[in-house]
Amino acid sequence: MLSTLHKSIKAGQAVRGLHKSAVGVLKRPAAEDTVTSSFGKFISEIKPQHLSPIVLHRSKRMVLDSIGVGLIGSTTEVFELALQHCQHMYAPDNISFVYGRRGTKLSPTLASFVNGVATHSMDFDDTWHPATHPSGAVLPAVLALSDMIPAHRKPSGLDFLLAFNVGVEIQGRLMRFSNEAHNIPKRFHPPSVVGTMGSAAACAHLLSLDPSQCSHALAIAASLAGAPMANAATQSKPLHIGNASRLGLEAALLASRGLEASPLVLDAVEGVAGFSAFYEDYVPQTLESPSDNGHVFLLEEQDMGFKRFPAHLGMHWVADAAASVHKLLVGVKPGKVSPSQVQDILLRIPKSKYINRPFPESEHEARHSFQFSACCALLDGEVTVQSFSEAAMNRPELLALLSRVRLEHPQDNPANFNLMYGEVQVTLTGGDILRGRCDTFYGHWRNPLTNESLRKKFRYNAGAVLPSDRVEQLIEAVEDLDRQENCRALLSQLQ
User: Fold this and answer.
1) Which member of 39, 124, 205, 312 has the lowest number of beta carbons within 10 Å of its beta carbon?
2) Three-state DSSP class for residue 388
3) By C-alpha distance, which of 32, 3, 50 is closest to 215?
């Protein structure tokens, strides 16, 4: 792998004071006093024994779901475009596997990129609170780096899971330093910011970098982070996840070679923006070092949100609310609702501009449209992978329902995944009014998917590109990961 780890100047080293003047000179805080160094120390020193059974269980579910989403994502146009770009523009490098492409390998950084793009290509990946997609930014990088590490030094399954959890934990900690980050974003797409930092942290840990190098990896990643929300609902949005995974890995590799960056990037320094450039109300706190008493991961306190269909998380509230109205209209027998039955559709939803799309013109816009998700669920009783095909999107009956949708934004319905709700009110042509409301959809961290439901989703997604026996072997490899001496069993199933 890397023959030597180049020396780096310790983050937070005190500057020489000037004593020739009566004017006082501000000194840089000692390393142990900075937020940045506390994160570096945590990343370097956390141990597998700090992973509780709950965190191991939840993180393995995340790994399984993310792999499945990446595999079905490898069938999309945006993934194919990203893969072709990497193959045509860069020299071949037969190191790290690519989702859904037998015999295709790229450099670790490019594999991280295309696999990250696959993971988010259908907006089917997990979501947390504060709002971000934690797995897609971290897992492709950890997988690619594990592929890069020589066979005799492959990380154990437990070490693999620890690196993955470090990447998730760093994302969660950074987002909790801002109230702005708790709401559905308006400026930066969160995975492009905290996801890049999480990828850098996970890879820095897997590379066994020292605390100073880990701090530098985060600071380097901060210079590579950020993508605007204007590209939501376009083919470029999946690039945010791909770049977060790739650039985080690059930041860790650069730090391992001795590249340095700001030792105060996570600290609040008056007049000079570090990570605060991404969040206007950023108030950082030091991260306590792991001790013999253990560390409580955020994943232990809050489970992950898993999607049942490939769309923005907010769509799941209105889809479930509309599906309940569908049941009232068709009764116990499966069937479809006719537009002739419906006079008016009122959605009571949070106010969020980029997911308010009355007539989506592409699958990516449809995945970010309250109106589309509600009308699909009202018409069919559910939203599925097939709902976003061109034929399904252009059905006359669906377009007819879309033309009858109105929106209200109640004051008690904030754009916050932990507090929002979805309400659908349908006025029938005869004057009757039917209502459906969803406060917590099935798959939300308060109402998580069962293991059976998660495996069902994985089997469908992975089965898009793999035979059934390989799908089952992957499930077994992930479930046994923390008990494996190395992660080769998992990697071999993905080659």
Assistant:
1) 312
2) helix
3) 32
Helix orientation angle between 77-89 and 108-120, rounded to the nearest 10 degrees:
170
| Residue 452: burial class (beta carbons within 10 Å; 0-12, 13-18, 19+) | exposed
In this structure, the chain runs to a length of 495
What six digits make up the tokens of 66?
């993310």
Residue 105 phi/psi, 5-degree rounding, is -135, 150
Residue 260, exposed/middle/buried by CB under 10 A (0-12, 13-18, 19+)? middle
What is the residue-level pLDDT of the chain in tens, covering all 495 positions? 444 334 333 333 333 333 333 334 445 555 568 999 999 999 999 999 999 999 999 999 999 999 999 999 999 999 999 999 999 999 888 899 999 999 899 999 999 999 999 999 999 999 999 989 999 999 999 999 999 999 999 999 999 999 999 999 999 999 998 888 887 888 899 999 999 999 999 999 999 999 999 999 999 999 999 999 999 999 999 999 999 999 999 999 999 999 999 999 999 888 888 899 998 888 999 999 887 677 999 999 999 999 999 999 999 999 999 999 999 998 756 778 899 999 999 999 999 988 999 999 999 999 999 999 999 999 999 999 999 999 999 999 999 999 999 999 999 999 999 999 999 999 999 999 999 999 999 999 999 999 999 999 999 999 999 999 999 999 999 999 999 999 999 999 998
